[in-house]
Design a protein that fits this description.
Length: 424
């Protein structure tokens, strides 16, 4: 296995990805300017999605340290956190200390030139720093303010600290994840962060659309716990309406009778027999059509009642041949089945590479692996406009362009420690 901390691109999996050069990208949100005051994953993921769709994103970071995720590693690539690089393309970085009066004034002036302000500070911290909706939006009826927190901006939990792990525990998803006799498990990706970030981006787009009719902005309140709980919609609603409490099962308790992983003679596969036609096609494909036509298994409810018997039958059958045999057979029979890929296998997937879900961004020789927008418009995948920024890379350019500050003013702010970044 290749070393995860190698800094030689020729030794890394990214060297086997299709190379993409920066380009124009999607322009659906062209002309929209976003001030991103968030750190870590949820907020940056939200603004990256908006940037991918064409918005101009200004990422404000602490001088010296920047976004918390810049320090998350190893693994690092050429000294940069790969976690940070995963959620921060299509942004400009401004290193600004807005805890001081002069820095707060600059921040407010930047906000006045933006359509959206996004934060992820708890309510009391946001108010103290003057970045809550009431403070930074004072005098602006058209400003869209987004807050992403663990528990929301009001209520008894508003000021509680939270991470993705904490939100997953609150939501119930950890209790449902893992083997029946095993311990609760966190999902293998920061699901609450990613879902909350996607919710925030969706809400911003809807608020921008509404603003075209009303001229009014919105105060958007996104909670990691809320977003993660909504993710369990299809487990919570059945419990509420039936009283049947779902429990950990290793993913073997779907409402669809046969919808789980199975072993084969070598590697496991997933198999979903989601309706009566697929049920019959499966048994025809494996050479036992009479089993599929058995009236005891006529409906999904019938099959659920006899799930253990059916699972044992299928498992015994699948153990007789290797994975490749079954996947080819079932694919030709139009039966949903697939492999259980490792991340290295996902990275080598030719279709994901062809569709530009996975690529290597080459920006002036700086090679950065990326997972794409995963949206095609008019038959085309997106292209990033810019790579994830270095800390403070655009401080001078943004303050000159948007606020009209001259070099002497910028130098004085830099000397006072209020801003940081290389002079343009």
């Amino acid at each position: 296995m290749l070393p995860s901390n190698s800094s030689d691109p020729t030794d890394l999996p990214l060297s086997r990805l299709p190379v993409v050069m920066p380009g124009a990208g999607f322009d659906l949100l062209q002309g929209i300017r976003i001030l991103d005051l968030s750190t870590s994953i949820a907020g940056p993921f939200a603004t990256m999605l908006l940037g991918d769709l064409g918005a101009h994103v200004i990422k404000v970071e602490r001088p010296g340290t920047g976004d918390d995720a810049r320090a998350w590693g190893p693994p690092f690539l050429d000294g940069e956190s790969l976690w940070f690089l995963s959620v921060n393309r299509n942004k400009q970085s401004v290193a600004l200390d807005y805890s001081s009066p002069e820095g707060a004034k600059l921040l407010r002036e930047l906000a006045d030139r933006c359509d959206v302000v996004l934060i992820n500070q708890p309510a009391h911290v946001a108010k103290k720093l003057g970045v809550d909706a009431a403070s930074i939006g004072a005098g602006r009826d058209d400003l869209i303010h987004v807050s992403i927190t663990g528990f929301g901006v009001d209520g008894e939990r508003a000021d509680w600290t939270c991470y993705d792990l904490i939100a997953e525990g609150y939501s119930g998803v950890m209790d449902l994840t893992g083997e029946a006799e095993g311990e609760p498990q966190k999902i293998g990706t920061p699901a609450a962060d990613m879902l909350a970030g996607q919710d925030a981006a969706l809400a911003v787009i809807a608020a921008l659309f509404a603003r075209t009719r009303t001229g009014k902005g919105r105060a958007i309140d996104i909670s990691l716990v809320d977003s993660m709980t909504r993710f369990l919609n299809c487990r919570i609603v059945p419990y509420l309406g039936s009283g049947e409490l779902p429990r950990r099962s290793g993913g073997r308790d779907s409402v669809i009778a046969i919808y789980q992983a199975f072993h084969t003679a070598d590697e496991p596969i997933t198999l979903g027999l989601g309706n009566d036609n697929i049920w019959r096609r499966f048994w025809e494909a494996v050479g036992e059509p009479e089993y599929g036509a058995d009236p005891r298994f006529a409906t999904n409810a019938d099959r659920r009642a006899r799930r253990a018997e059916i699972v044992a039958k299928i498992q015994g059958l699948l153990l007789t041949k290797p994975r490749a045999h079954w996947l080819s057979l079932l694919r030709n029979a139009r039966v949903p089945a697939g492999p259980i890929n490792r991340i290295d296998e996902v990275a080598e997937d030719p279709e994901l590479q062809r569709r530009r879900v996975l690529y290597c961004l080459d920006a002036n020789g700086r090679k950065i692996p990326q997972v794409g927008t995963a949206i095609c418009l008019d038959g085309q995948a997106n292209v990033p406009r810019t790579p994830p920024p270095r800390l403070g890379e655009h401080t001078y350019a943004v303050l000159q362009e948007l606020l009209g500050l001259d070099h002497a003013s910028l130098a004085a702010l830099s000397a006072a420690g209020i801003i940081a970044g290389a002079a343009e």
